[in-house]
Write a structure and sequence with these properties.
It is built from 4 helices and 10 strands. The chain has an 8-stranded mixed sheet. A hairpin with a 4-residue loop joins strand 4 and strand 5.
């Protein structure tokens, strides 16, 4: 099913407040940060994960749902502290552990990574957008509750990565 990716914004519900902007990175499967993400090296290390080797730093991570250990929150918080975590997280399903990792990073390190949840039609539009070409998503979630995600093309001082560069 193809959805309208020409829209400039989509509604979301902010679970964790913050501002984040970056190129979307769609994870084709759920990820446990505990054992599945290297918070120092900054890449997905879960063997068999479709995005194994992908880097999240500065990206808006699109992950339908999470999986795994409650220790994932500590790995996510450390990735954010190290600058190797995502700029924002968009999910289809609320996840306490992912939200807690971002809250801990906010409280301990003053680094605010928003976590938002979207409806099915918005999720599908974002999935289509992530594969449509270079763009950035901008999430401004000043406080938990309703917010908007905006899309814009890459600007000259932030070009897309060169072809052949791992995501």
């Amino acid at each position: 099913m193809h959805t309208d990716t020409t829209r400039a914004s989509w509604p979301a519900s902010a679970v964790v407040s913050g501002q984040g902007r970056g190129a979307p990175l769609l994870l084709a499967g759920p990820l446990s940060f505990w054992g599945g993400y290297d918070a120092v090296g900054g890449c997905v290390i879960e063997t068999g994960h479709p995005q194994c080797g992908a880097r999240l730093a500065g990206r808006v991570m699109l992950m339908e749902r999470a999986k795994g250990s409650s220790s994932s929150s500590s790995v996510l918080a450390e990735a954010i502290r190290n600058g190797t975590g995502p700029a924002a997280i968009v999910m289809r399903e609320r996840d306490l552990i992912v939200g807690l990792g971002c809250i801990v990073a906010s409280e301990l390190y003053g680094l605010h990574v928003p976590v938002v949840v979207v409806c099915e039609s918005t999720w599908q539009a974002l999935v289509d957008l992530a594969s449509a070409g270079p763009c950035e998503l901008d999430i401004d979630a000043a406080q938990p509750g309703d917010c908007l995600m905006r899309v814009s093309p890459f600007i000259a001082d932030n070009p897309p990565p060169p072809k052949g560069t791992p995501p």
